[in-house]
């Protein structure tokens, strides 16, 4: 079966509620403005006319400044949000490592949550029944399988979410930064599992600011700015296009200049310290 992602003129607009500025001044008005002034609804375009194809075998990095739209695009690719305009076609099974607690219920047991989360991910109950023990073992939570989820620490929940999300191999992996949370013993096995899943998937989409990681793992890059597609192509060229965005911003100081400024400051401090009283 072919594995592919194709977007044509794809946009996402979302309703956004913005508080109006209070008409009268005064601290109580400012604090309680929501009670006096109704919010105004406006629509925001978060993704704007994206056109791209991701083919079988591609490892694609999403690059862009904060707020460029990378996480939103991953959510759209995962099926959590539907594009409001244009077309998106995703062929292949997909796994998003975005929100590891998605579909959890605090009042259900750890074991029940494995079924809840698995179903939310579109997996069959019979498949989950086969996997439940290995998931508990991987998350190191077998002993608390019948305890309610709310008794777990945030690290234990994260381990559970990761163990469920990565329990089966999918065709398409969607990731927001390379996973690196958890305690030392968990990180080591989580990294091994993640590398296996990434090696075994046919398309990976990774949103990251870590250029070293991107160079190591990705073959192509898609650069976004203000929700618009700025570049798509080989990863090195994508990194250049991303750097060009922030280098063109007012107030940008090249790293080299920063080094010189720091060296000058240190020299001035040394001169001051050496000066006789
Ligand atoms: N549900 C929402 N309603 C309104 N605006 C939203 C919503 N979700 C995201 N945004 C806005 O959309 C823009 C893109 O957000 P997104 O999280 O996709 O950016 P990003 O590129 O992943 O940023 P970062 O690098 O900081 O993680 C931001 O300006 C954000 O405020």
Describe the structure.
- The protein has ten helices and nine strands.
- By secondary structure, the chain is α/β, with parallel strands linked by helices.
- It folds into two domains: 1-13 and 45-92 and 208-261, P-loop containing nucleotide triphosphate hydrolases (Rossmann fold); 99-201, P-loop containing nucleotide triphosphate hydrolases (Rossmann fold).
- The strands form two sheets. It has a six-stranded mixed beta sheet with strand order 5-6-7-3-8-9, sandwiched between helices.
- The longest helix has 20 residues, at 255-274.
- The relative contact order is 0.15.
- The structure holds adenosine-5'-triphosphate.
- The site of adenosine-5'-triphosphate has 12 residues, from strand 1, strand 2 and helix 3.
- Adenosine-5'-triphosphate (ATP) is lined by residues 14, 16, 44, 46, 64, 66-72.
Q: Order of strands across the biggest sheet? A: 5-6-7-3-8-9
Main sheet properties: 6 strands, mixed
- Helix % is 40-55%
* Nearest-integer average pLDDT: 88
Question: Helices and strands, in N-to-C order?
Answer: EHHEEHEEHHHEHEHEEHH
What is the number of helical segments per DSSP (H or I, 4+ residues)?
Answer: 10
Could you name the CATH class of the largest domain? Alpha Beta
CATH topology descriptor of the largest domain: Rossmann fold
The CATH homologous superfamily of the largest domain: P-loop containing nucleotide triphosphate hydrolases
Distance between the termini: 80 Å
Supply the number of structural domains.
2
Can you count the beta strands? 9
User: What structural class results from the helix and strand content?
Assistant: alpha/beta
Question: Compounds present?
Answer: adenosine-5'-triphosphate
**Low-confidence spans:** none
Give the CA-based shape: globular
CATH architecture of the largest domain: 3-Layer(aba) Sandwich
């Amino acid at each position: 079966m072919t594995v592919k992602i194709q977007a044509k003129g794809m946009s996402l607009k979302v309703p956004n509620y913005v508080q109006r500025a209070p008409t009268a001044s005064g601290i109580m008005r400012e604090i309680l403005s929501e009670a006096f002034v109704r919010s105004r609804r406006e629509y925001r375009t978060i993704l704007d006319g994206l056109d791209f194809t991701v083919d079988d075998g591609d490892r694609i990095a999403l690059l862009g400044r904060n707020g460029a739209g990378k996480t939103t695009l991953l959510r759209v690719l995962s099926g959590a949000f539907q594009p409001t305009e244009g077309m998106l076609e995703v062929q292949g099974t997909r796994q998003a490592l975005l929100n590891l607690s998605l579909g959890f219920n605090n009042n259900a047991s750890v074991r029940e949550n494995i079924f809840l989360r698995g179903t939310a991910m579109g997996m069959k109950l019979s498949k989950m029944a086969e996997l439940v023990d290995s998931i508990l073992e991987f998350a190191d939570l077998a002993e608390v399988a019948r305890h309610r989820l709310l008794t777990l620490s945030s690290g234990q929940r994260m381990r559970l979410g990761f163990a469920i999300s990565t329990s089966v191999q999918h065709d398409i992996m969607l990731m927001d930064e390379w996973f690196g949370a958890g305690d030392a013993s968990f990180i080591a096995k989580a990294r091994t599992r993640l590398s296996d899943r990434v090696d075994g998937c046919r398309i990976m989409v990774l949103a990251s600011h870590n250029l070293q990681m991107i160079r190591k793992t990705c073959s192509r890059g898609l650069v976004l700015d203000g929700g618009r597609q700025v570049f798509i192509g080989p990863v090195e060229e994508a990194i250049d296009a991303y750097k060009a965005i922030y280098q063109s911003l007012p107030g940008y100081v090249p790293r080299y200049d920063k080094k010189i400024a720091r060296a000058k400051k240190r020299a001035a401090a040394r001169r001051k310290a050496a000066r006789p009283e």
